[in-house]
Amino acid sequence: MKYWLVKSEPDAFSWDQQVENGVEPWTGVRNHTAKLNMMAMKKGDRAFFYHSNIGKEIVGVVEVAREAYPDPSAESGPWVCVDMKAVGPMPKPITLAAIKADPSLEGMALLRQSRLSVGPVTEAEWKYLCKVGGWKGK
Fold first, then answer.
1. Cα gap 25→18, rounded to integer Å
2. Does the residue 99 lie in any domain?
3. Average pLDDT of the chain, as a whole number
């Protein structure tokens, strides 16, 4: 299993909407690096759901329910999306400020490629952030 972080602006698509919808296509990604990350995702991989711009925090955990397929929201181009399934809320949301302040996370893709909407998370980062956020799931 691989781990990821997916970002969404909560005024466009929030964690609450993800939970309400259950499974949702993760559409609208128009960055080639993020697209390649989605193409690398496998069914069952887990991702942190991160509110960007407003809140700037990890608020939940989602799981890849369907691997990459053509993004129906794309007018043209080789864009893909994946289906994400809500798994559960992060008991203690983890702010960007807390991540930046933690020296053990200084190499995290979220900090190195801050504009990337879909990025990898190492297994060590995943386990550490789950502990910090009180996440007991796998």
1. 10
2. yes
3. 95
**Tokens (6 digits) for 110:** 């979220």
Rounded to the nearest 5 degrees, what angle is found at the Cα of 3, between the Cα atoms of 95 and 114? 45
> What's the burial of 28, exposed, middle or buried (CB within 10 Å: 0-12/13-18/19+)?
middle
Place of tokens 């930046």: 100
What is the pTM (predicted TM-score) of this model? 0.95
Q: What is the distance between the alpha carbons of residues 76 and 53, in angstroms, rounded to a whole number?
A: 27
CATH number where 74 lies: 3.10.590.10
pLDDT at residue 115 in the model: 87
| pLDDT tens digits, one per residue of 101-123 | 999 999 999 999 988 999 999 99
Amino acid (one-letter) located at 129:
L
Whether residue 59 lies inside any domain: the answer is yes
- Domain of 88, in residue numbers: 3-133
